[in-house]
Amino acid sequence: MRLLYSLVWGLSLPFALFRLWWRGRLEPGYRQHIGERLGFYPAYANIPTIWVHAVSAGETRAAEPLIRALLARCPEHRILLTHMTATGRETGGKLFADVGPRLQQAFLPYDINWMIVRFLRHFSPQLCILIETEVWPNLIAQCQEKSIPVTLVNARLSEKSLRKAQRLASLILPAARAISSVAAQSNPDALRLHELGIEQPGVTGNMKFDVTPPPLMGERGAALRRSFGERQVILCASTRDGEEELILQAFVEQVPLLQTNPLLIITPRHPQRFDHVASLLESHGIRYLRRSSLNHEEIAPIGTDIQVILGDSMGEMYMYYAACDIAFVGGSLVPLGGHNLIEACAMGKPVLTGTHTFNFSEITEQAIASGAAFRVDGALSLFQQAHSLLADEKQCQRMGAAAYTFFLQHQGATARTMQMLEKYL
Hints:
It catalyses: lipid IVA (E. coli) + CMP-3-deoxy-beta-D-manno-octulosonate = alpha-Kdo-(2->6)-lipid IVA (E. coli) + CMP + H(+). Keywords: Cell inner membrane, Cell membrane, Lipopolysaccharide biosynthesis, Membrane, Transferase. Pathway: Bacterial outer membrane biogenesis; LPS core biosynthesis. This protein folds into two domains: 1-203, 3-Layer(aba) Sandwich (Rossmann fold); 215-410, 3-Layer(aba) Sandwich (Rossmann fold), CATH 3.40.50. By secondary structure, it is α/β, with parallel strands linked by helices. The two termini are 33 Å apart. The longest helix is centred in the first third of the chain and has 22 residues, at 2-23. The chain is built from 17 helices and 14 strands.
């Protein structure tokens, strides 16, 4: 099965490279470092290396506390941080700008044997740490052949992903069984990972609870909030394709019924969709400003005629949370599985989420049970619930306090993960 998988990868390589070029129209990072995706890298000093693979921006942010703990625990080692997306690499560059040469970034090559062999020969990592959901059959097989331990940390697996993996059992099961250690985010994740074929996965929690909100983002959030005056602010964060249309239609229908003039902030999950969402705003006749048009530090007052701020920036999610009164976390109005609520809780904001949260089911249910979050069944319900909360200041404050308490209570996953990794360091 792995031979067939490798053959399919080889045949699809020209299409994968074309896709990189095509995505590079909107995200130039995809047209950079193309050689790395084929296993060709600049010279690398012969230094003991711990390799951390974080596919995109979310996984990279989740890995931050672990990487900093590894740097402190292993001062003689260099960290190799690999990605698959341009946004992941950009996020890593910003997060670890202070680290210097002890951390090197690269793109992971495609999962084709000869490329993986070149990668492993070039960097000679002593340990591979995969973040969240990555199981690459050839990568894991080549690491096993070269006696490089492979660990999967902050691991999560939804029912949908489990069913998909089980349909490819003859390919995925050998890779899963070759993983040396697994640290799952939750008990349900651990059970599903065990069902996939991983022996004795541990449960260490979600490392995103250990990420410290950058003070600069709090300051920028305060500056952004001052520019809004006394207006109440609803944030729709990490929205996905299909959600913005629902949100904007409901916003247009609801706002004329209100006595207040709330401001809506929309931050699409993927930067290549910023212009698309701007077109949607224009098609609805909504008056809006783009974040990219505003001063980064001291923002001039924004007129009450502006209805929406389009968050067309990367790496400023904490700023948007700091600037809002209520936060809706996207990917949950449509069946995409949702996103985690941790950043909103870390900023002490009342959280709203839709019904499709299967990627983060346990953490979402826990947040709702603790009083930190509320589930809505659609875009109209989103605004109705938001307006109800904003009209009740004490309830809003209670939910915000519960959210921050929920955030604090779930910290410590990084320390538990480091204990699991200790035998490999």
